């Protein structure tokens, strides 16, 4: 399509998207995100515009490269790849130029090079076998059965009914139900077949006739053609050097078999290009092949273990066997029983007395002899147990590399954790709410990690991805409430401008949608904006930002009450109670002594230094309260306590707590004594606080009134560690005698990843 008016219209839309990235005025900021959505809708209604849009986006990317305008590279690249996934008829020249741009971007720092590498891998697969990205996306998201591509994905949307209004819940549920009623398995299979044939055959594919034929085909016939197309595409994509001609001939045979004699009458099938009559009016406007939204399940989070239960149920339909029985067979699936992967521990029954040793025991064979190997592997009278090493029991990162299988173009072996065990399932957990909801998510994430050290149920099979959309209650004043309960969303917006532009602006739109009257006819829902943005976020948000979880141990005034342990993600707030601990004896206060507000606190912490040296600091002061925050307060601290490069292992050397203490300052003058307050701030990795004058404390975690602890006299805060980080490793040393020594594994911090589009942009 070379219509100048079409190109000018798309160019204006792209420029509008770029302008709002630099928008500083509230009038423009109020409509952020709408231009990107309307741009995608234009090409969805007219698929012939997609090659024009690809050319415009690529031209803007090359311009940004020349001018070193890096702030627009990520939005343009994500928009371009989203169009590539849906498009057909993209020329080889556009594929080559886009791939060359991604390869040149590998010289840029992270996260630019990380995203560019992911895009380059996907582009290479799509250029070799057109339609692969679309096909794999639909198969995984809609859980269609395919032997050659068995991956499954599901989006779990969690909403806390106590934090989000019922009207918002109803509006979201209405959009999800209206979209999924039109996304039957038969419709999705028709989309896959149509897209694959149209992407491979191009203008030779009579798209209108093809779609009508598929619409009239019964389910059994449709399934047969669906599996044939999937087999053709996947087998070609798995070859190291795929042949375009062979792939084209195979799909032409499927196309001719599907359309029957009508297709053969237009041209010869079986290796030659299919020709259509000139001036066919049905070819002037290509029919739109929609990309169905992911399979989303809506959940009201009312149970603490609800996330765990839903993840287990997600794995269960794949097999009718019990999960425990299925996972007990892990050591039968190719795991070698050597010392490196799985050791056999032996519980000895001998006495250990020297005289009880067999004769000739002082003449030990050499280390490498067969006798020594048999002596090390076989011992009579012992009980043998299979013991997994700690590094297999729980991997250091559960989420794994972003994209895993379908986004990298390698359908097999890409998501393996153990030999013979592949992560075929991807759970994308999306939570809506404020910082209180994220605190609840952190507790559930920690509980799952802790449970996995005992049952080892989800980790080998599941890739867990976490997403967050801020939804704040529309209460007055809105600005102060956003600053109070939306700190993590603000942090994500500063770290990733495309997240700020696309996701953080959803909150007003969600409330506007909730205020609209409900439609009784769900099929009339047209262009669901909220669902489309959620879908875009789920598909393109592959770069995580890691947040350190902190643990707190709480001691109460009642000595008979056991200490409590909990975790928090964003904030721990301490208030001074008016009540005191009751004393056995009575000591009257001296007259004229003014105690003053607040309480005497003893604070012991490790000061955070750039040299990473440990420096203990102990102070005593009178304070009316203090706040411990885990997030940076300004743009200059974006890469501080939570930053982790997406391309590397988590780096947490700079993690720290930001502590603000409201100290009471006593002054004396002729009028008497007066008290004033001053706020002191410092950074620390861990801290211990105790009340010195029997004044009790109240602790609130993650701004959630449901997570409040009263009558506290002391508490300790430290970074939360992986539940298995203290596991013991057994190491066998064979010399003149056999001895066992246990060494403690190095502690690893527990980081919770939240996916964004780009990670943290410096």
UniProtKB/TrEMBL annotation:
PANTHER family found in the cross-reference section: PHOSPHATIDYLINOSITOL 3-KINASE REGULATORY SUBUNIT, PHOSPHOINOSITIDE 3-KINASE REGULATORY SUBUNIT 6
GO MF: 1-phosphatidylinositol-3-kinase regulator activity
Tree of life domain: Eukaryota
GO terms (BP aspect): G protein-coupled receptor signaling pathway
Region (Disordered): 335-380
Pfam families with a match to the protein in the record: PI3K_1B_p101 (PF10486)
Gene: PIK3R6
Name of this protein: Phosphoinositide 3-kinase regulatory subunit 6 isoform X1
Species whose genome carries this gene: Camelus ferus (Wild bactrian camel)
Gene Ontology CC terms, in alphabetical order: phosphatidylinositol 3-kinase complex, class IB
